[in-house]
Design goal:
alpha/beta, Rossmann fold, 15 strands, two-stranded antiparallel sheet, disordered N terminus, nine-stranded mixed β-sheet, 15 helices
């Protein structure tokens, strides 16, 4: 096998673009599994546990403060993992929520919020739920600087939004809780889109109820999905469109660098091929996708033996491999993504190895890669890829025309960019806008702002996070929450 062929095979697995293997068979629709955790837990009880274990001041319907112990702690489904002050009065709460009986039936829930007085988060009519993409969970994406020594704590999208009065919540999907080394993945056999939707419903309901209990009213929240999280976000919005208005959770949808449907025939064919590959893996009893295992291996080798020859990508060194993969994803992405697609823009160097990165520091890129998670569910990937294949009928795009909430697509010219706009044209909303960040002419797209740069670089604050903040501010409900809690 040639070096180029070997690189294409391995790196395609790493980034899950295009097809994992070639197949001429048209895929069939996934079976449509039902989430075992749907309805198992009461989001109101979860919210009560969150409030009680966080020690937040509770307010009744008349705005009167109640003692923290006025709310019972509930059945023990919530674990308060951490309360981390970040910068100024911004704090980060992390929870683990048991949503089913299995050891890995756990979702993470995050809150990043201003808290001038401990136990009294600042009230705000501006709120958002953040959903991460593939492999990397909430912290490395939305709190990059706070979880890496390579950047200041405030260099994080969630922190920036919280500093500007947004009540930021986020979810970690179930697969984040799975440690490396698990041998039996049969528990993942029904971890599909329906389960993902159920877990998102739980997160939204619990967050909204916790906000209501602490004086923020019963306002709907905005929903930002990034990368694969945007694809799942479209499935969730399709689900909500079927519900009565009073049961819907989302005020506005912000898909970032992601899509489900496309009008690019090469992309459509790539989705069909990818769905066929995932179908074959699933039907053979493989329920886990292990991109993260390989990525973590590459990161580890770069850390412990940077100058050694990579055992996976010779003759590159272990240090060069993550730089090459980050800046040259296009090399193997094939027809499944734009030919310039990259995670982090690099200054071209000898042999395709970047001499440096342009927007994100090398240390921060390595830290980001080192915070990937090892496993994801094949069924979920199969279903989402199938939804992007015109030859397959799935239920996840049947109600796009009934999605009427405001929509704000955000893309970067070095990533999916303008290709993500088409999906928004299929929706029923009359309030749709897009923001594409670009610093280079089209012929230099390879060194333009990248898919990960938008959340890991300092440039992201002005070019990405600020437009998102402005959109949230312009689309938040008026309320009587202008009065802030006392700070002393």
């Amino acid at each position: 096998m040639s070096q180029r062929h070997w690189l294409i095979v391995i790196i395609t697995v790493v980034f899950v673009f295009g097809s994992i293997s070639c197949s001429d068979d048209r895929p069939t629709a996934p079976a449509g599994q039902t989430a075992t955790g749907a309805g198992l837990v009461d989001p109101q009880l979860i919210a009560m546990e969150i409030v009680a274990k966080s020690g937040w001041v509770v307010e009744n319907e008349d705005g009167m403060s109640l003692a923290p112990d006025a709310i019972p702690e509930g059945p023990g489904l919530v674990q308060l993992v951490d309360r981390q002050p970040i910068v100024g009065d911004v704090v980060h709460y992390t929870y683990q929520i048991q949503v089913d009986v299995g050891p890995y039936d756990v979702i993470g829930l995050h809150r990043v919020v201003g808290e001038p007085t401990e136990g009294q988060p600042t009230r705000s009519q501006k709120s958002v739920m953040l959903l991460h993409g593939a492999n990397a969970a909430f912290n490395p994406v939305f709190l990059a600087g706070a979880y890496s020594d390579a950047a200041p704590d405030y260099q994080a999208c969630a922190v920036y939004l919280a500093q500007n009065g947004v009540d930021v919540w986020g979810i970690d999907e179930r697969w984040v809780s799975i440690p490396q080394g698990v041998a039996d993945f049969s528990f993942m056999s029904d971890w599909g889109v329906e389960q993902e939707i159920a877990d998102l419903e739980t997160a939204f309901s619990a967050a909204r109820e916790a906000r209501r209990l602490t004086g923020n009213g019963n306002l709907k929240m905005h929903f930002l999905g990034y990368s694969r999280g945007a694809t799942a976000g479209y499935a969730y919005m399709n689900h909500e469109a079927q519900l009565p208005p009073g049961q819907r959770q989302v005020a506005g949808f912000i898909p970032v660098e992601g899509q489900m449907k496309t009008d690019n025939p090469d992309f459509v064919e790539a989705r069909c091929q990818s769905a066929a590959n995932f179908e074959s893996m699933y039907n053979s009893g493989v329920y886990q996708e292990e991109t993260g295992v390989l990525a973590l291996t590459l990161w580890y080798l770069a850390m412990v033996d940077p100058d050694g020859i990579s055992p996976i990508f010779p003759p590159f060194t272990n240090y060069q491999v993550p730089l090459f993969l980050g800046a040259n994803t296009w090399y193997l992405a094939g027809p499944g993504s734009p030919p310039w697609y990259h995670f982090v823009a690099g200054i071209p160097g000898q042999g395709g190895i970047p001499s440096d990165l342009i927007y994100t520091s090398i240390d921060l890129w390595f830290d980001f890669l080192g915070m990937w998670y090892p496993y994801e569910p094949i069924l979920r990937d199969w279903e989402l890829e199938a939804a992007g294949c015109d030859a397959i009928d799935t239920p996840y795009d049947d109600y796009f025309g009934d999605i009427t909430v405001p929509v704000f697509y955000v893309g970067v010219a070095g990533g999916l960019g303008a290709y993500g706009v088409y999906n928004t044209t299929l929706l029923g909303s009359s309030d749709v806008s897009a923001h594409i960040v670009s610093f280079q002419p089209p012929e230099n797209a390879l060194i333009d702002f990248g898919h990960v740069d938008m959340f890991t670089s300092a440039v992201g604050e002005q070019e990405v996070w600020h437009p998102i903040l402005t959109w949230i501010e312009n689309h938040s409900h008026p309320s009587d929450l202008q009065r802030q809690r006392p700070t002393g």
